[in-house]
Amino acid sequence: MISVESLVLSPGSRRAFERMAADGRRVLGARFVALIAYSAADAVMFGERIDAADLDALGALAGVWHHDDLATPLVITTSEFRRSLDAFPIEYQSMLDRHVLVAGLNPFDGVQVLDADVRRACEIQAKSHVIHLRQGWIESGGDESRLAALTVRSAAPLRALLVQLVRLNDLRAENDEALAEAASVLAGAPADLIGAVLALEKAPARASAVVPRLSEYLSACEQIWAFIDRWRSR
Q1: Do 155 and 224 sit in the same domain of this protein?
Q2: Strand 74-77 to 43-47 pairing
Q3: What is d(CA 49, CA 63) in angstroms, rounded to the nearest whole number?
Q4: Which residues form the domain of 84?
Q5: Is residue 94 part of a domain?
Q6: Mutual orientation of helices 214-229 and 191-198 as an angle, nearest 10°?
Q7: Which residues lie closer than 8 Å to 90 by C-beta, 6 or more apart?
Q8: Could you read off the pLDDT of 115-150 as tens digits, one per residue?
Q9: Same domain assignment for residues 91 and 189
Q10: Tell me: the pLDDT tens digits for 33-81?
Q11: In a domain, 172, yes or no
């Protein structure tokens, strides 16, 4: 059983998201449903209908959001969200696990992602993770700063993958250390290394210490891929 750390927004982030929600209400009017934050910078804006004119109006506000250190929000209708649960199960489950309702009515209420969809998506994501690590390694041309940046970028998708891996195997993981230990127990990945990569989300400056173990990290991700790939025979 996994227990995910709740998302807590700083007062500054909360105010910035509230301004974004107010922008959404002005643009969408009565069609505005909700703004939900799923990280300190990322959010989903829900509307009953999204028109091309809405995108133009929201686009004019993107610079303001970026100035507030917020990413451009995902914009989707409630119907589209529910109909695409099987297409983006890991991404949506991560949002369901860890989010803050900033404004409106929560469209996540009563929503459930099917384990079968998560299982299939985990296999795809594990393969993609390995392939993109290899590609990024080649593109770095041996430059250590670029390798460090690659490792930092890999932390968030690795976390999302491991959270679902733990969930599907009915294990408990309440923090990064537990997630890393689960990766070790299930797939034989070195827990200390996986933990070090996960920590890069909050401390990216530590990436230089992980770069010398990049080969080991890639092998660990290949082991996770192999473990998930064996699910098909169960």
Answers
A1: yes
A2: parallel
A3: 23
A4: 11-104
A5: yes
A6: 100
A7: 118, 121, 122, 125, 160, 161, 164
A8: 888 888 888 999 999 999 999 999 999 999 999 999
A9: no
A10: 999 999 889 999 999 999 999 999 999 999 999 999 999 999 999 999 9
A11: yes
Domain end (from 70, 104, 138)? 104
Could you identify the residue written with the tokens 């996960």? 198
CB burial readout 3-37, b (16+ within 10 A) else e = ebeebebeeebeebbebbbebbbebbeebbbbbbb
Q: What is the pTM of this model?
A: 0.71
Q: Which residues contact 82 (CB under 8 A, 6 or more apart)?
A: 107, 111
CA distance 200 to 207: 6
What SS3 state is found at 99?
Answer: coil
CB atoms within 10 A of CB 121: 22
Q: Are residues 27 and 77 in the same domain?
A: yes
Domain assignment present for residue 160? The answer is: yes
Last residue of a domain, one of 85, 104, 123: 104
SS3 at position 103: strand
Assess whether 119 and 207 both reside in one domain.
yes
The residue with tokens 């990766």 is 183
Backbone angles phi, psi at 172, to 5 degrees: -110, 130
